[in-house]
Design a protein that fits this description.
The complex is a heterodimer of chains A (about 70) and B (about 450).
Chain A: H1 3-17, H2 24-51, H3 53-57, H4 62-68
Chain B: H1 9-18, H2 23-41, E1 44-47, H3 49-64, E2 76-80, H4 107-114, E3 118-123, E4 143-144, E5 147-151, H5 157-164, E6 170-174, H6 181-187, E7 190-193, E8 214-218, H7 221-232, E9 248-252, H8 262-277, E10 281-285, H9 293-315, H10 322-332, H11 336-355, E11 363-367, H12 376-379, H13 387-394, H14 399-404, E12 408-415, E13 421-428, H15 433-447
Parallel strand pairs in B: 2-3, 9-10, 9-11
Antiparallel strand pairs in B: 1-3, 4-5, 6-8, 7-8, 7-12, 11-13, 12-13
The chains are: A mainly alpha (about 70), B alpha+beta (about 450).
Chain lengths: ~70, ~450
């Protein structure tokens, strides 16, 4: 988990919600952010590594919609 | 006619068309039942009795004058309270939009009403469609008609409960990670998450622009087919009449069948034998890595939802339920690169599914959930430390499909020893809804599980 996300979460709680980052709710939110961020990072890293850079290089997101719509991408 | 609420949507619509049943009497029965049962089920946020009865009377006059509106003529429906109708409140299950009055009407609702449907109220939902259990910090929880101590599933909680309890004949839900399929499965009704993009999303509350998917819930696949025909303008109902003999269902050799509760495994084994008896062939298929698709879905929907909600997160954070606020906050921490990579990977994951398992069969045959229907007590977790794990487990077998954008249909397959519904899930190719409906319809006709009503 990058430190920047942790700092972001604490800043967000303090600045946007007026919540002391050291209280229990802030701690829970902070833990949630850390766990979800770590899981997402792990999943994207793993999937990207499996696909390889070449496969990702030319992906265009409209291809997804074209496939679902039954059009040749 | 005292038991007209127990007809299917198609049976009710056809009876009204023949003149053996009036819309007014049917709407009145449904409203009376909704008012009587809502204190227990909490399936409706609002019942619109006077307006619905007036529309039903108009519709009966039109039929008598030889001007039927369409294939849903006079049938009472209600929808998840996030489908806008111009001039009418749409709360989105939230405190923030409790009194929001949209200026536009969802084109899906407009199509259903143009075909003769009578909307009788607004249905319970998770706050801003975020939550797979049926809990709501502002409106209380929706209760399962089969056992009020159990959850309904969500986020289309009222849609599942109201259809199961015979308060309406069908409803619209929305499915961003399982929100049609989970309440359909837990409440013992049929639910369809169509191919991403097939149904219009205008006039519907947004959660995730990439994953949001409207979908119908009803008491039979034939009812779903009729609704899809009305909403898409493409034929669906005629496709039900072909034989399923010779169709091939793929059984994934990994992920979906791991760690199933014994009643689920036993029930789906019986369902498989029923389908084999109808001539369906089953083959084992290897599927691409699925375990990480739920996390990739999180990388897409949580930042999209956080982007939508950021102004209110800044100005009205205290007006969110604790769990919803915590989940939205997670989205603020997903980096732009993770979000974009997850969207790019979506295309490659879909291509791998189409080139792999879905090239070897007509559809996949999988469970909807690993566990039986949970209790309220086990899932009322607000934003506690175990929240992410509990929510992820409930939707573990539905979220991959949302990420892939493929169609998925759930239909009741039996009951566990406590009498709670168990469902099977069919996953199709893009625009493969007619095939899924045909298989499910054959199963429903053979087993008649769908006609069983909850003991309420």
């Amino acid at each position: 988990m990058p430190t920047s996300s942790n700092a972001f979460a604490r800043d967000w709680l303090r600045l946007a919600q007026g919540i002391d980052p050291d209280n229990a709710m802030a701690a829970r939110t902070d833990a949630l952010i850390r766990s979800s961020h770590a899981a997402v990072d792990r999943a994207t890293d793993k999937a990207c590594a499996r696909q390889g850079s070449e496969a990702l290089f030319d992906v265009r997101m409209e291809r997804f919609a074209s496939i679902l719509a039954g059009r040749t991408p | 006619m005292t038991d007209a609420r127990h007809l299917t949507l198609c049976e009710a619509a056809d009876a009204i068309a023949r003149g053996t049943l009036t819309s007014e009497s049917l709407v009145a029965q449904c409203i009376e039942a909704a008012k009587a049962l809502n204190p227990r089920l909490n399936a409706f946020i609002a019942v619109e009795a006077d307006e619905a009865l007036a529309r039903a009377r108009d519709i009966d006059r039109e039929r008598a004058a030889g001007r039927p509106r369409g294939p849903l003529h006079g049938v009472p429906l209600a929808h998840k309270d996030m489908y806008y109708r111009a001039g009418k409140v749409s709360s989105c299950g939230s405190k923030i939009r409790r009194d929001f009055v949209p200026k536009i009407t969802s084109s899906l609702v407009a199509r259903l009403e143009s075909a003769g449907a009578v909307t009788i109220g607004r249905l319970h939902m998770a706050e801003f469609a975020m939550g797979p259990t049926g809990h709501n910090a502002h409106f209380g929880r929706c209760r399962n008609p089969w056992d009020e101590s159990r959850i309904t599933g969500g986020s289309s909680s009222g849609s599942g409960a109201a259809v199961a309890a015979r308060l309406v004949f069908a409803s619209l839900g929305s499915d961003t990670g399982g929100s049609v399929r989970l309440p359909a499965a837990m409440c013992g009704v049929v639910g369809l998450k169509p191919t991403q993009g097939l149904l219009a999303t205008d006039g519907m509350m947004g959660l995730s622009e990439s994953l949001d998917c409207p979908g119908p819930l009803a008491r039979s696949s034939r009812d779903i087919a009729r609704l899809m025909e009305v909403m898409t303008g493409r034929p669906h109902e005629a496709a039900l009449d072909g034989s399923v003999a010779g169709l091939v269902l793929g059984v994934p050799t990994s992920f979906y069948w791991n760690d199933l509760a014994e009643p689920i495994a036993h029930c789906l084994d019986r369902a498989r034998r029923v389908l084999e008896g109808l001539g369906v062939r089953f083959v084992d298929v290897a599927i691409p890595e699925h375990g990480e698709l739920a996390d990739l879905a999180d990388a897409v929907w949580t930042p999209e939802a956080a982007a939508i909600h950021l102004p209110w997160l800044r100005t009205r954070p205290g007006d969110y339920g604790e769990q919803v606020r915590a989940r939205l906050t997670q989205g603020l921490a997903i980096s732009a690169t993770a979000y974009l990579r997850a969207r790019q990977l979506r295309t490659l994951a879909l291509e791998a599914m189409l080139a792999g398992p879905l090239s070897a069969c007509d559809a996949l045959f999988v469970p909807v959930m690993r566990s039986t229907v949970p209790t309220d007590a086990a899932t009322d977790i607000a934003a506690g430390t175990g929240m992410r794990k509990v929510l992820a487990e409930i939707a573990a077998l539905t979220r991959p499909l949302s990420y892939l954008g493929l169609p998925g249909l759930v239909t009741p397959a039996g009951f566990d020893p406590a009498g709670l519904p168990i469902a099977l899930q069919l996953i199709g190719r893009p625009l493969g809804e007619p095939t899924l409906l045909r298989i499910a319809n054959a199963f429903e006709q053979e087993t008649r599980i769908v006609v069983q009503a909850p003991p309420i």
